[in-house]
Design goal:
mainly alpha; globular
Amino acid sequence: MLYCEWLKFRKSPLFWALPAVSLFGPLLFMVMRLGEPMSWEGYLSNEKLMYAFMTVTLWIALLASQIISKEYTDFTASVLYTYPRSRMSIIFTKLIIAFLILLASTFIEFIGMYITIWIFKGEPLPTELLTDQLARAGLFLLGQLAVLPLFALFSQISRSLLVPVLVAVAATITNLSLGLSGSKYFWYSPFSVVAAPYVSGIGNIETGKIVMLIVIVFPVSLAALLMHTFKMEVK
């Protein structure tokens, strides 16, 4: 089943969009700032503004739509759910593939960031900053995992691409407005878990709040997705 889901993704336009989405932030910011002096902290925070705050939520929505709603737009859902497999195994297979894709995009983005910073600054990222960024990337990946079932649920309920994308756009605007202003209400949004690792300064990760968000958002969104999966009617 995992291989079948991989083949579906491999044949979709999102497969070819993967490197472009992952490297969009690092390359764009390098081109914009090339030759302009900037501190390590300034470079890192601005590059993550483009990816963590402005790109990844929409990317998660598109992946969720690819693995869920495309079954309905291609009229394959009725066949899929008649396989001699439980609905739970089907939905978990889809989530695993989507998470592996998110893992790949996060890895490509991180490597792209490291290389472009090296080009931009003429020296490798200092060890303490590299450790800080690795810790943030780990929490960032867990945050993506936490909201993935939520976007899969939106896609499954609407059976279309439009609703998850609209939710992602609204979440992106909310994260930008609340996160960058330092509002306490940022932490009340389930979608903030994606951008939360990058709202604090270097060496000051708000790990407790982020982990709390992940612990709340992931099981709730996964439970809601599974409940709808078991109760939905497939035509």
